[in-house]
Specification:
A hairpin with a 5-residue loop joins strand 3 and strand 4. This protein has 3 helices and 15 strands. It is α+β, with helices and mostly antiparallel strands and 255 residues long. The chain has a 4-stranded antiparallel sheet with strand order 2-5-15-8.
Length: 255
Amino acid sequence: MGNPDADMAVVTAARMWPAGPLPAALLPAGFVVVPATTLPGGVTVPAFAVARWLAARGPDGQLLLSATAPPWVRIGYHAARQACTRAGAGLLTESQALAIAHDLAAQAANWSGGAVGAGRLFQGLHLGRFDAPQPACATSPDPRERRWHVLSNGERIHDFAGNAFSWVFDDVQGDADGIVAHGFAPDSPTLATPPGVPMQQGLGWWPRAGRSWWGRALARGGSWSSQEGAGVFTVVDERPRARRAYVGFRCTLAL
């Protein structure tokens, strides 16, 4: 696996990723496998590959994966999807984001107390020490702002909480374009997957049942200044065409 913190692999859209599913052994640099996951409500999310870091923007204006480049923010939801598509990838979906969060919450290494449920889930950069999203190689002097989480297969993923929100394609409440189309049902995986209540133990924030974000796009994770609102289960709504300084995106590949 190597040292993920020292991994400076770069992939640009000029080197298009092959179309269609890829064997795990042939994944491009910068991607890690997320194992097949069954969410608490019974929904099974097939295994997929996800970028280790939030997407960055290369000098050619195309998608770049790098531990040393800052996340690509000030980009709308639709534009983020298009950037992923041009690179032969997909935008992280809501069910995939829930699968990652569920997997991370079950690993003792991601809890400040060293055991699942002990202390707090690490929340990344969220305490307001920075005034913009940082490249993955940057560190905070505060141990509470550890930026990486480890998956059940031992792979690390950076900035799944804090630093910058990530647009997600809503395949749970959404329409064909991934835009929220109806309210949050009580048994929605979005609401049923978190193992606790909002704003506790570093889990982040999510809406109550019945809330409607119709016509909005989902963004997950938190920003460098989200405070208790940052977390692996955090989900908020934004206007799809909004270009926020605190919202970026993460891409995926099918296996």
